[in-house]
Each structure stands twice: as C-alpha cells, then as structure tokens.
Design a protein that fits this description.
- The chain has a domain at 3-72.
- The protein is built from 3 helices and 3 strands; from the N terminus they run ββαβαα.
- The protein has helices at residues 13-25, 75-85, 90-99; strands at 3-6, 9-12, 46-49.
- Strands 2-1-3 form a 3-stranded antiparallel beta sheet.
- Helix 2 crosses helix 3.
- The chain is elongated, with a radius of gyration of 16 Å.
- The two termini are 32 Å apart.
- The structure holds zinc ion.
Length: 107
C-alpha cells in the first residue's frame, strides 16, 4: 500500500491526498508538489511511497484513519509481530495474515 510522510507521521494514500487537498485549498501547497526537493515533509506530505513507507521494526498504520499500511518488516519486526499476535485480536490477526506469522509466547 502506498503511504505519505507528513510531520514525522505516515498516512495512507487517501489521508495523504486529503491533507494535500486541504493545504492546497489554504494556499499552502508548494508551487510544484512533484519536486520533493523544493519542500519539507513538515510542510506538505511527501510521497506516495510504495510498501507502506518501507521496511520497519513494526507494522505501520496510517496516523489519520489507522488503516494497516502493509509495510515490509525487519527481522526485529517479525519478532515483534510474533509476540504481538499471540494474544489475538483484530489488528493482530490482520498482521498475522499479511505476514504469514504464527503467534507465539514471548521468550
Ligand atoms: Zn488513512
């Protein structure tokens, strides 16, 4: 899933597009939004980037709507998810399905 980076947070494409539209309506969009060297992600969402913002130590979720961004995991990330999915729950099941990880008790 594609993701935007804005103010040190990750957003799904829908939320990122909404933020961009809101900033544009307030006259705060950069002159050329496709030129990412011309603005900072503090001011305007950068992206969209593939793979949910890229490899991370834990699953990424959108900071706006909470949707799971389906990013790749580091080996630490796999450990984290294996321990997180052991107790079950909706979010844990989403992670377990996507990564194909079986839950297990923390060592
Ligand atoms: Zn979102």
């Amino acid at each position: 899933m594609n993701a935007y980076i804005y103010q040190a947070a990750l957003y799904c494409e829908d939320c990122g597009d909404s933020i961009r539209a809101r900033l544009a309506s307030e006259g705060r969009a950069p002159t050329d939004p496709t030129d990412e060297t011309a603005f900072d992600s503090e001011e305007y969402p950068k992206g969209p980037y593939p793979d949910g913002g890229g490899e991370a130590d834990s699953p990424n979720h959108c900071d706006g709507c909470g949707v799971f961004l389906e990013n790749p995991l580091t080996s630490d990330g796999y450990e984290y998810v294996a321990e997180a999915v052991a107790p079950g729950g909706d979010v844990a099941e989403q992670w377990a399905d996507f990564y194909g990880i079986e839950g297990r008790e923390a060592a």
